[in-house]
Amino acid sequence: MAKTLFDKIWEAHRIADLGDGAALIAIDRVLLHERTGGVALQSLESAGYSVLAPERAFATMDHVVDTRPGRTDETLMPTGKNFIVATREAAKKAGITMFDIGDPRQGIVHIISPEQGIIQPGSTLVCPDSHTCSQGALGGLAWGIGSSEAEHALATGTLRIQKPGTMRITVSGQLSRGVTAKDLALYILEQIGAAGSRGLVVEYAGTAIAALDVDQRLTLCNMATELGAFTAIIAPDDTTFAYLEGRPFSPQGALWTQAVEAGRDLSSDDDACFDREWSMDASDVAPMITWGTSPQQAMRLGAPVPRTGDSPAIQPRRLCGRSTIWG
Fold it and tell me: How far, CA to CA in Å, does 84 sit from each of 38, 40, 131, 247?
């Protein structure tokens, strides 16, 4: 049976079917930040559990730490210091990798993971952050979770997940000069709405997507949470492998060669079936701005601001194996 990229990663990590569409899924990497990481690690210890695989867990100072030069544990956020100190102490005790204040590797949690090679094509990764979906740009299945789920993933290396549906957004052609991945993300939001991918795994495909560099792919996948998506993913290719090769936590030597060979098989089969499909022409995308309080309230630069309450343009949605329906 033909499979989507998501299906291939899901099945490779499925430990057991739990009924009603749920499964126990193996988790390869867990990322934490100081806003919830210390709490999760302390709660885990209080319950009498330890981190199953400390080498697969990572924490960084990200959410409440100040951004000004010369920053310390003191922070402008009330009680922020408590979160920072608690996470540092808990991470050290648990034996997980910590990107602390002053560490040159420290940064935004879903950015340092690609920079360090923590996310890899075909891997599963979770983090208590809604923009964890950014990392699907490198061909991994990455999604945001809650603190209690983080505890479970840390203690067992697994999570119980209700299998989400799938949507493929194919962007053909090439983006015009001066049009960025952020413009494309806002154009998609304008077209299908802020709930247009609710609960679905979005796969971005097409010639316009293949032409994007990794930074632009990260931007596009980052915005999938604004679509209501479970996560987003882009099939790995030479651009992906060139970016990840030699990163600190990427496989090295012969293992890297094996990883690339395996990664080249990570794409949706030609006749794979998606629950929903959208096709767009990159030449229709222009520089975009937003004008309201919802990310779907976007328009091309120079267009008149719509009246309050206007809905985004609605296009036909094709359900796999069913007749065309309209949103």
Answer: 8, 13, 21, 27
Burial annotation 127-144 (CB, 10 A radius, 16+ → b, else e): bbbebbbbbbbbbbbbbb
Band (pLDDT 50/70/90 cuts) for residue 306 is confident
Q: pTM for the full model?
A: 0.92
Q: What residues contact residue 51 under an 8 Å CB cut-off, 6+ apart?
A: 41, 44, 57, 94, 95, 96, 154, 155
Q: Residue 34: how many CA atoms within 13 Å on its side-chain side?
A: 29
Q: Are 210 and 178 in contact (CB under 8 A)?
A: no
- As given in the structure block, the two tokens for residue 304 are 């008149």
pLDDT tens profile 110-132: 999 999 999 999 999 999 999 99
Q: Based on C-alpha coordinates, what's the Rg of the chain?
A: 20
Q: What is the DSSP letter of 187?
A: H
Helix, coil or strand: residue 251: coil
One-character DSSP codes across 87-151: HHHHHHHHT-EEE-TT-TT---HHHHHHHHT-S-TT-EEEESSGGGGGGGGGT-EEEE--HHHHH
DSSP letter, residue 294: S
- CB of 306 closer than 8 Å to CB of 187: no
At 72-109, the pLDDT tens digits run 999 998 899 999 999 999 999 999 999 999 999 999 99
Q: What tokens were used for 126?
A: 């979770």
DSSP type of residue 298:
E
Kindly list the distances between the CA atom of residue 87 and the CA atoms of 47, 93, 96, 306, in Å, as whole numbers in the listed order. 17, 10, 11, 46
CA distances to 70, 172, 176, 325 from 120, rounded to whole Å, are: 33, 26, 30, 36
